[in-house]
Specification:
Shape: elongated
Number of helices: 9
Number of strands: 0
Oligomer: single chain
Structural class: mainly alpha
Radius of gyration: 18 Å
Order of helices and strands: HHHHHHHHH
Strand content: under 5%
Helix content: over 70%
C-alpha cells in the first residue's frame, strides 16, 4: 500500500503541472493555479501515510537530529510521506512561478522548461526562475501594485 501511495502522490500533481505547462493561457488554468487547494491531493496522501505513525513522526520532527531523520527516511512510509510533502510544496512553488510569469509576461515557451526543471530539481528551477523574473520584471512595481495598471 505504501508503494501505491508513493506513486499516487506524484500522479495527483501531474494534472496541475500539465495545465501550467501545456495550457498556460487557459482561464481555468489561471483559476486553478491561484488556489492553494492544489496542494490538497498530495497532502491527503501525506496524511494517509502518517496517520498511523504520528507518535513516531512527532518524536522525530519535534527534536530532529541527523541519525533520527536518517532512520525515519529509511522506512517506506517515512520516505513516501516526505515525498508527498515535497510534491505539495513544489506544486505551490510552481503555481506561484506560473502566476508571476503571467504577471511579468514571460512567454509560455520559456516557462514550460522552467516549470519542468522545477518539477525535477525544484531549488534550481526556482532559483533560475527568480533570476529570469528579476531580469524581465519592471524595476518599479510600486505603482502597479497600488493602481493595478
Amino acid at each position: 500500500m505504501t508503494g501505491f501511495l508513493f506513486d499516487l502522490a506524484f500522479w495527483l500533481t501531474v494534472p496541475f503541472w500539465g495545465l501550467m505547462i501545456f495550457a498556460p493561457k487557459w482561464r481555468t488554468t489561471a483559476r486553478i493555479a491561484s488556489s492553494p487547494l492544489i496542494a490538497v491531493p498530495p497532502l491527503a496522501v501525506y496524511t494517509a501515510l502518517v496517520v498511523g505513525h504520528l507518535p513516531e513522526l512527532w518524536a522525530t520532527m519535534s527534536d530532529p537530529d541527523l541519525d533520527g531523520v536518517r532512520e525515519f527516511l529509511t522506512t517506506a512510509w517515512g520516505t513516501s510521506a516526505v515525498w508527498a510533502q515535497v510534491l505539495a510544496w513544489d506544486l505551490l512553488v510552481g503555481a506561484w512561478m506560473y502566476r508571476e510569469s503571467r504577471r511579468v509576461g514571460l512567454h509560455p515557451l520559456l516557462m514550460g522548461p522552467l516549470l519542468l526543471f522545477t518539477i525535477v530539481l525544484s531549488p534550481f528551477g526556482f532559483a533560475l526562475f527568480l533570476a529570469v523574473r528579476a531580469f524581465c520584471d519592471t524595476p518599479d512595481r510600486a505603482t502597479t501594485v497600488v493602481t493595478d495598471e
